[in-house]
Specification:
The chain is about 30% helix and about 20% strand. It is of the alpha/beta class. The chain has a domain of about 100 residues: Nucleotidyltransferase, domain 5 (2-Layer Sandwich), CATH 3.30.420. About 15% of the residues are buried.
Length: about 150
């Protein structure tokens, strides 16, 4: 005699929709809480380079900023002495006239690094996108090199 009727139980089913909802919530949480901050980096070319750009490889001649060993700045082909503030003004004026302006930094090997950074900051403020550095080739004269 059977007093109790055994019911067959089906195994519990996994509800995929609920798992997908949980996965989306976790993904959104991770995206919101993760900081996607890019660290500023300064790329420098060494004073001597075997991969430097050959003379005449560029169609446009860049505007040259020269930095001597004492940290004095000179601008243009006539090597006009300028201060950092005056350099910012000159670069802004020249960048507004020329849409695709190239700037080249010719710094002495013993020039203060702070002056190089100031020139690069001035170029960035003026909206100049291409800044090259002059390097000395392995066996050749100084040439502009892309950084």
């Amino acid at each position: 005699m059977r007093f109790f009727i055994k019911k067959r139980r089906q195994p519990p089913g996994i509800i995929i929709v609920a798992l997908i909802d949980i996965l989306i919530v976790l993904l959104i949480f991770l995206l919101v809480t993760t900081t996607l901050k890019q660290q500023p980096a300064l790329k420098l070319a060494l004073p001597e380079s075997s991969q430097s750009q050959k003379p005449g490889a560029s169609e446009k001649t860049p505007l040259v900023v020269t930095i001597d060993p004492q940290g004095n700045l000179r601008l243009g082909p006539d090597s006009k002495p300028v201060t950092v503030d005056r350099l910012k003004q000159e670069l802004s004026a020249l960048a507004s006239k020329t849409a695709d302006m190239h700037l080249a930094i010719s710094a002495d090997k013993s020039a203060p690094f702070g002056q190089i950074v100031k020139v690069m900051d001035a170029a960035k403020e003026a909206g100049i996108k291409t800044v090259d550095a002059f390097t000395k080739g392995a066996t050749a004269a100084p040439q502009p090199s892309k950084r």
